[in-house]
Amino acid sequence: MAEMVDAGGHAGGVEEHLAFYVRTFNEGDADAINRLYTEEAVSVWEPGKPLSGAERKANLAEFLTLRPKLTAKIRESHVTTDTALLSVDWTMEIDGEDGKRESFGGLATDVLRRGADGNWRYAIDDPYGDPRNATAG
């Protein structure tokens, strides 16, 4: 397994990228998470509402204040030299408005690009890539 490096992401495969993302997400470090995305990345954290640029970054930072806890596992991956398509099963727990812990999840569709530095970064992050598999409750 490749060794993780700080600042720009990590060396290694898409499995290591996802593990690093989950750990960083659960630590609530928006700056570190944003380094795992391309500058022009698109995230669809709410079905049908893609975000990019400063809006994506601000939305992520605000969401992390809720202290969500993420788990994720790659169901399927297709990797070329510098592009990867992932299907990822994920679940998340978060405190609801009533203070009770809520969980939800789905099957994500993610596209990653490998940069010149060898690090994978999200170009498209769509947690609800297959809306039929999204769950709440």
TrEMBL record:
Organism encoding this protein: Streptomyces spinoverrucosus
InterPro entries, sorted: DUF4440 (IPR027843), NTF2-like_dom_sf (IPR032710)
Protein name: DUF4440 domain-containing protein
Pfam families for this protein: DUF4440
Residue ranges of every copy of the DUF4440 domain listed in the record: 21-121
Upper taxonomic lineage: Bacteria, Bacillati, Actinomycetota, Actinomycetes, Kitasatosporales
